[in-house]
Amino acid sequence: xxxxxxxxxxxxxxxxxxxxxxxxxxxxxxxxxxxxxxxxxxxxxxxxxxxxxxxxxxxxxxxxxxxxxxxxxxxxxxxxxxxxxxxxxxxxxxxxxxxxxxxxxxxxxxxxxxxxxxxxxxxxxxxxxxxxxxxxxxxxxxxxxxxxxxxxxxxxxxxxxxxxxxxxxxxxxxxxxxxxxxxxxxxxxxxxxxxxxxxxxxxxxxxxxxxxxxxxxxxxxxxxxxxxxxxxxxxxxxxxxxxxxxxxxxxxxxxxxxxxxxxxxxxxxxxxxxxxxxxxxxxxxxxxxxxxxxxxxxxxxxxxxxxxxxxxxxxxxxxxxxxxxxxxxxxxxxxxxxxxxxxxxxxxxxxxxxxxxxxxxxxxxxxxxxxxxxxxxxxxxxx
Length: 383
What we know:
- With 383 residues, this protein is mainly alpha-helical.
- The chain is globular and about 55 Å long.
- Helix content is 79%, strand content 0%.
- The chain has helices at 14-34, 38-44, 49-77, 79-99, 103-135, 140-163, 168-186, 207-236, 247-261, 263-270, 272-292, 296-310, 313-323, 329-357, 360-380.
- It is built from 15 helices and no strands.
């Protein structure tokens, strides 16, 4: 009796592209929903800034541990199952973060939330690499643009709900309903497999994968610098009222989102190498402009240039990972995602250490020098 051959994986098409965009939106929406809840958690648990900072490390640790595990699980069980599991982790953790007041429970909630974020972020980037390659078109910037859009909607939406008088728990329940609805829409067309290549479950990144990961680290380091230190810089160094100091990150986030949503056309027009070179130079110029000129208005312009310059570098680097053959993609994609997250997590602490020893301006100039290195790398990286 003739054995029936196992059918090959369905080649991703338009429906899989749509599900990838929704999954990126979920990732951005989920992480941003936590930001407006931080002051409530701080007050509820009676935390000082130092203790809160240590607690937030639990989120980072959960993410970094989950990312390589998610890559291995996606390779075995498929992106659909792993991404769905990560999204459900977010939905379980958010009510904890909105209600618990004891430090041990907050630590557990943040670790769980971080694990969910790391799982979703790692897996959706793996799916994006496979879907983009199957399409034969440039799509990665648009995918990441949905992450940025989700971040804006999540932060603004939860802030609006809290401003209308909803409790943190009620606001998170609204977030959960939206998140689950998005997951139900995306799930049927998330990939039932996780890699088109075989290999070990875990490996230390090396070769071009390590190089790309280091570039991601620098770009995410710059993003973390603007996120955590631009408001401090604008208020302390430029005399801007604290109520408006958040405009620095707002300018960065706006141009980052616009750059990514229009980025696929930009990459097709300029090419990947030029995007890295021009983007790196633009981000370098923006960081120097924000740091060295005395007016707060020029600082806002500088942060906007940093957002525009950085917007499409990381998507291009993810596309490059999908083309390399040094490591299987189900290992390579989580590896560079983990290195990127390490930049966001380690960046603020590193900047604080440098600022304590010299000044915040010196720290920002050093980041500008690193961004210049990213621009130079565009000349030698094969993308």
